[in-house]
Amino acid sequence: MSEAKKIQEKRFAGDMTAGSPFRLILAFSIPLLLGNVLQQMYNMVDSIVVGNYVGTIALAAVGTGFPIIYMMVALFMGIGSGAAVIISQYFGAGNLKKVSDTVNTIYTTGIIGAVPVSVLGILLSGPLLRLINTPENTLSDARLYMMIIFAGTIFSLGYNLNSAVMQSLGDSKTPLLLLTIACGLNVVLDLVFVILFHWGVAGVAIATILAQAIAWFIGIFLINRKYTYIHISLFKFSFDKELFQKIIRLGLPNGLQQMLFSVGTLALQSLVNGYGSDFMAGFNGANKIDMFAFFPAQSFGMALTTYVGQNIGAGKLYRVKEGLRATMVMSILCGVGAMVLVLVWGPNMMHLFSQEIAVVQAGMDYLRPVMYCYLLFAVMNTFLSVLRGAGDMVFPMITSLLSLWLIRLPMAYLMAYFFGKEYIFFSYGGGWLIGVMMAIVYYYSGRWKKKAVVSMPDSGEKEDKDE
Fold first, then answer.
1. Residues 376-388: pLDDT tens digits?
2. For the segment 26-70, what is each residue's pLDDT rounded down to a tens digit?
3. DSSP character for 457?
4. C-alpha distance across the termini of the chain, in Å
5. Residue 374 CA from chain centroid, whole number
6. What DSSP line would sit under 257-292, residue for residue?
7. Is the separation of the CB atoms in 170 and 14 below 8 Å?
8. Rounded CA gap, 110 and 104, in Å?
9. 213 vs 209: CA distance, rounded Å
């Protein structure tokens, strides 16, 4: 491919190696933010429909299975994020052939790997639910929900791979379109399967996998049509061993982090489950709400990861610090607004999931302490996003796991034991505080600058201000 053609392809897809970092990251983040909101609405519809038309026990069942589902697919999702970093760096370097080869390799890995995940998930659903102290009155519905979701693992992985590929190329608008399609389908199918057909939690699960399957197939068509140098085929696998090793090197730490983080979440879920269905339902409903508050920081962080990856691939290290500053300002400003909204309107939001006073109170017992510490998360997430974009996946893994396993979990159990269940969630702030300190120290050490997958050329445009 000629150099002119490469430049044309990059501009079309979303080059982030030139222009205002603030403008680029904000423009990239807006579709991500809208997408995250839609994704959460996608999840909330399940909970709202179940909570209001099936009951509190069913609401608890749908929520309690999610950490287990996430744990089982986290490894492949982490490997996919490693591939996304490689794609963004090769794209920044203008090596579109390597971009295509990386896409084909991760797609092959994901499709083949989805099969054992489905089988294991279906077989282990019951034992894992018992392991986390799921009450007997919730166990049957939770197991049914999980088995159906695991049966559709390939659709979920494929759908998320499409989004990761496009976002790594600087395209956050097409994933938003696909998510809109998935959300719309999910809402319609939820209402039909639960209210009209009376399928209960099974209807919610079936609606989810059908919506993701349709969005996945549409996404493949759009990627093949929009990016002339990429061709995804479900019937013709392509695998590059060298690229796979790079993907594993970057993705495995992130995948392990997400898996172990999910195990930690299950340990916390087990503690929550010990206080009965009302407390479980309140915790699960509040989880849906607090995600809206976290979306701005998460969206800016995802945009920053792509931005950093592309600029490191292009040899423009000086732009990384500028992107960090812009992202930090936006994350903190949006975070303050989100905190105010959730703390003031939290009880009204909880009424969407249940009218029972005990459930609403349990949800607020979670939301208040978490929101008080929100800005710690925003700062930590910004620094760790830079490291991931640079190709340094190990330190973010260490930071997240230490803050969870050494601080949050022990603190949660201690707070519950000495002060009661209402104080469990102050443990989030303790974990984030440690994470912030670790991330800042490591960032200023500069070690992450040596983790790039591609060799960074000297752009000759500007002296690196970070040195």
1. 999 999 999 999 9
2. 999 999 888 888 777 766 676 777 777 787 777 777 777 777 887
3. P
4. 35
5. 17
6. HHHHHHHHHHHHHHHHHTT-HHHHHHHHHHHHHHHH
7. yes
8. 10
9. 6
